[in-house]
Fold:
Amino acid sequence: MRRRIAGFALVLTLLLSLALLHPDTSRRLLALLRSDEAADVDIETLLEEAAGTVESGVDRSVNPSPSHASTHPAEPPATEPTDTTPPQHDHREAETSDQPAAGETTLPTNPQTTLSPYPPPDLPPTTPVVKELTGNVSGTVTDTAQLVGRVNLVGDLIIDGGTLLARPGVTVNGNGFQIMVHSGGRVDWRGTPVFTWSGDGSNANLTRDINLRNLRRIMFTGGAGPSVIQYVAVHSSGTPRLGDYPLHWHLNGNSTRGTIVEGVAVVDGRHHAFVPHGSHGITFRNTIASGIAGGAYWWDPPPKDGSPKDMNNSHDILYSHALADGISNAPGDDRGYNLAAFSLAGGDNNTLRASVARNINPSHKKNCSGFIWPSIGSQSSLWTFENNKTFGSDCHGISVWDNDGKLHIIDGFTSTEGISHGAYINRYEYRHIDVPYVLVHAVGWSVTSGRIAEVRDTKHQSEGTVTFIDVEVGRLIMDSLQGQDPPPVHYAFTNTGLICDGVEWVSWVEGSTVTIDGQDCPPSTE
Structure:
């Protein structure tokens, strides 16, 4: 019985194969199996007939009989087999063809440089077919184009809703023209990852294999989309005109969210370097600004023309391991007043960490610094500030000129320069700092850990207290008169190592007090 069942199973398998080759014969055998005579059919005979039918069916399919010629067209001989799978066209051929259309090129599907793990939203790492831009170039890109080899701009290059690609080996001479990206346009420039900088920034590497030179600006505006700019060098770009900055994101709002600027070096920038202006969600990582006129990591102040005060604010900006090295006066500014490598101005959820400012040397030293909290009134914003440094400058390491009631935390700061803290009254807390001096202009703030070689009392506009707790302090110099008649100031030191003999009374306002571990230290002229 088991043998008979197995035989019928084999017959059914043959029938399925036969159905593909000769339907009429398969129907005859199937009818036989269903008939009343099926029980009397010898299984060996049935197997032999089915197998022979399949063999003869194959022969007939190659050389069909006249009775089937009208319904079953002849197929090619067996020696020239034909793939019966329906042919594929359109997109599959475009994706796999080794021969691109004239004037087009096919990008590699797996480029050597990627941005993982931070890809921008909706931006594919490659685009199958793009137009090449090489030699003399100008005009508008509305789809996808790729810079190839040596590119010489003979006019502005506008990315209007399209994507501009660049891969290693590209050199662009801008000839004073601009690359402008708007209306959802974006760039995807990916050089080869290289060492950027480390330590105090003195060993920075400015060599890249994608180079753009002598551009008026690279500007993202009018709703530009999220871009990738990775391991690219921008040389000798920008002009003294307002808005002509080497890399400038101008009032894009949320459309730039997801933008990544990584390993980029702006070298000999003629007017700032990196400027996120009213544009949100941009990450700057392992960047270098070297030899820059004006603040390198610039931030536009609130407008003064009646526009909304917050229109220039940027939100969710991250500067991580960013270097500014060699900062001089901005164009048209012969003083360098309030010049800073990094400006920490208006916006929400902004972060600056593990970054270095060095060699800030304007012609006028008044209130210049590596990092500045500028005077911007109601737009003063809370930044996450962690583990940043300054070296080798003729300016302060940190400059604060701010008046607000928000609690600003500065956590981790090392400098060969010091801190100048103003303006009148504010709430800042310094943690884990190591600086040679702190100049005290404002009251209401504190230092809660670290080391300060010298605290210098200077002129004030408001009466209040400055507090030092669990921070090593070498000495305090009281010298707040300085030709004015300011209100008194009060200093409170707890667990600082300072003693009353370490207070030097040079000039002071009557009513000013110094308290060390609960003990009053009276003025002394000795």
Confidence is low (pLDDT under 50) at residues 36-40, 53-120. The first helix runs from residue 2 to 21. The longest strand covers residues 144-160. Residues 2-67 form one domain.
